[in-house]
Amino acid sequence: MHNTPLSSRKHVVIYGNTNAGKSALFNAVLGQSAAIVSDEKGTTTDPVIKAMELIPFGPIALVDTAGLDDISNIGNLRVKRTVQMLSRTDLAIYAIDPDNFDIDNMNKSIERFNHRNIPYLLVFTKIDLLNEQDINKLKQQYPNALFISSHIKETIDSLKVEINKQLSNISDDDDSQLAGLIPKGSNIIMCVPCDSEAPKGRLILPQVQLIRDCLDNGMTCSVARDTELSNCINNSRKIDLVVTDSQAFKTVSKIVPDNIPLTSFSMLLANQRGDVNIMSDGAKAIDNLKPGDKILMAEACTHNSTHEDIGRVKIPRLIKKRTGIDFEYEFSIAHDFPEDLSPYAMVIHCGGCMITRREIQNRIAFCMEAGIPITNYGVLLAYLNGILDRCSQIFRIKSKQD
């Protein structure tokens, strides 16, 4: 992993009407011509996402979007894509062309930001085309707004300074899976089964992220397959936590002594990016489902499925074994989470390593508003294998400490 994945970057998203100078602003902040700039309306179609280093904050994802005022048939689809970006937005920039100021659309966008608790910046663009009197009048009306030109470096630099301030105010306490759960100096064993789903020659993202988390928090980490796990435990003087793949819960729980905390990559992600308590309650809802109920399986990435696929094979098989019912399953992939959850009796999410914390939290909130139980793969597998209490013990200890 040479670069910080998009799922671990704060998303700064530029919104506004067509021809508000969004793409020019995007290119100026990015420092390269990544988006097409044109006087033609509707040049930007789908969101354009670029990873960049924002000094001194660090890695972010900068996003350019289509105009919010495009009312053509294809424009409605573009607007829909733009609005969907709200679920991934950590900081919104609303770009305004002073010569075409649509105050109604601005207020509507601010309502959207406030509804989702998204911090935002109002940015008036193209100030190089205004006289000083017009600029001062706007500054009096909008004292907290920024006034920039994509052609004036000093104004772009001032925007970057403000973006840095806003992002620094966003809590980073939950950026770590381990901080607060176990102390610095702890020793962790990662149990990584190597079945047909494991990619050849590399670790998967949650495993890489946890190793880096150990390094960031001054912890030591050993990696072993389930076949070598027993020897690894016996050769370790002190073990503070064992983390395994959800699919190996049943096997690994028999190997790890009861006095050693055990959890999974998915449960760590549920605790860090979502709400492990809501996910645990959601897992128990599996016993209340009825014949004919439909379950949504939410996968955050595209992948080739095999006979050992966790979401498409193993979990449905275990659910049928427990309930005796063949439920109907539908799948959402990546960011295409359905806007209407009414057809579903339950949502089962993957670990979510490929999408942002904000997007997962928005999905949880959406399910709660709709009254639909939600869980994730790891939490559900722990419940189905009868070891949820043991695998969530590390989180209960943290809650008591808080």
Describe this structure in words.
The chain has 402 residues and is an alpha/beta fold. It folds into 3 domains: 6-173, Rossmann fold, CATH 3.40.50.300; 182-268, 3-Layer(aba) Sandwich (Rossmann fold), CATH 3.40.50; 274-384, 3-Layer(aba) Sandwich (Rossmann fold), CATH 3.40.50. Helices cover 38% and strands 17% of the residues. It is built from 15 helices and 14 strands. It has helices at residues 22-30, 73-84, 103-115, 132-141, 153-169, 205-216, 229-234, 249-255, 265-273, 276-284, 310-323, 357-370, 377-384, 388-391, 393-401, and strands at residues 10-16, 48-54, 58-64, 91-96, 120-124, 146-147, 187-191, 220-224, 241-244, 262-264, 294-299, 328-333, 346-349, 374-376. A 6-stranded mixed beta sheet has the order 2-3-1-4-5-6, with helices on both faces. The protein has a 4-stranded parallel beta sheet with strand order 8-7-9-10, sandwiched between helices. Helix 3 (103-115) links the parallel strand 4 and strand 5. Helix 10 (276-284) packs across helix 13 (377-384) and helix 11 packs parallel to helix 13. It is globular and about 75 Å long. It starts with 9 loop residues before the first strand and ends with a helix. The mean pLDDT is 88.
Features:
14 strands, Rossmann fold, 402 residues, alpha/beta, single chain
